[in-house]
Amino acid sequence: MANINFLADLQEMISQELSALGYPPALGEDVDAILIRYINLQRRIPPVVVWTVKQSKELANKPLSQSIRLGLQQFIEKAESGQNLKPHLSKHSNNPDYKDLMFYDWEIFHFHLGTNPHPKHQGFVERTDDLLFAIADSNKAEMYLIGIHPHKGGFTNQDLLRIIEENWAEILDPYTSRIVELTHNVSDNGIDILRKGGINPILQTPSGRVLIPMGGGITSAGTSIRNRREADRLRTSVHQLEQWFVQQQASVEASFKSKYGKKWDDLTFKLKSFPFDLPVKIEEIITGEVLEIPT
Question: For every residue of the chain, which 3-state class applies, written as one string?
């Protein structure tokens, strides 16, 4: 039997990335924990793509200081030209263990609008008290700029939900509950208390729409439910990839036997790319040949 363990290969790749950021896996940390940490890191950073940027009417008409307006303009130019937006994120964006409760609840990003590099933290812009709150739909490469609000109170500001509904109601449709009405709607301060307690707030917009968490929700440990599900999905995907590859034994062996005189049992295959990065790359270690799987 050829030497194949794609899940161990995935664990090794992720461990290397986390270690490079200064957050190596703990001794004995299993693959599930490492996967969740990695996904927590990846989901909180928008991909580098050319975004179609849409502004709410509230943001377009909001009076802004000259510095914040310039910062917003530069941010939009970066997004629309496909530049990396990570410098505008929280300094915690490199920390795979950071718990972004607002993101877990609403999947809303917050961006700083500094126009100069941060004087102490390389790779980030200067911090601003006023933050830009936005939703980034990476499937459509569309970014919805909701509003700019002060840091204090911004992360639980239910007016963000009202603005989303009045500008892009379709975003909320998948998260609209069948519950007709709530007897009591939680205050902004109450949202903060519930999130920190690992409880998912069920909220009602001013128009009466009852929402479940757009970000998938928060566990009792203050972690992301969606991260857990994504980790399970990725683990299953890698397992299925390995099963499929083993089923190709006859054709793979024939190729390596004709090229290198190697039988299936002589070969060692290693996963060299993430399953969601196409084509998937699998290297045969002894010969160095890299196989590319397009789908």
Answer: CCEECHHHHHHHHHHHHHHHCCCCCCCCCCHHHHHHHHHHHHHCCCCCCCCEEEECHHHHCCCCCHHHHHHHHHHHHHHHCCCCCHHHCCHHHHCCCCCCHHHHHHCCEEEECCCCECCCCCCCECCCCEEEEEEEECCCCEEEEEEEEEHHHHCCCCHHHHHHHHHCHHHHHHHECCCCCCCCCCCHHHHHHHHHCCCCCCEECCCCCEECCCCCCECCCCCEHHHHHHHHHHHHHHHHHHHHHHHCHHHHHHHHHHHHCCCHHHCEEEECCCCCCCCEEEEECCCCCEEEECC
Q: What is the pLDDT of residues 199-255, one digit of tens each?
A: 999 999 999 999 999 999 999 999 999 999 999 999 999 999 999 999 999 999 999
Q: Is the same domain home to 75 and 187?
A: yes
How many other C-beta atoms can be found within 10 angstroms of the C-beta atom of residue 132?
23
Q: What pTM value is reported for the model?
A: 0.90
Q: What percent of the chain has pLDDT over 90?
A: 89
Averaged pLDDT of the chain: 94
**Residue among 202, 210, 185, 159 nearest 56 (CA):** 159
φ, ψ of residue 19 to 5 degrees: the values are -65, -40
In terms of phi and psi (left: phi > 0; alpha: psi -120 to 50; beta: otherwise), the region of 282 is beta
Among 193, 216, 239, identify where a domain stops. 216
Domain of residue 187, CATH code: 3.30.2310.20
Same domain, 93 and 181: yes
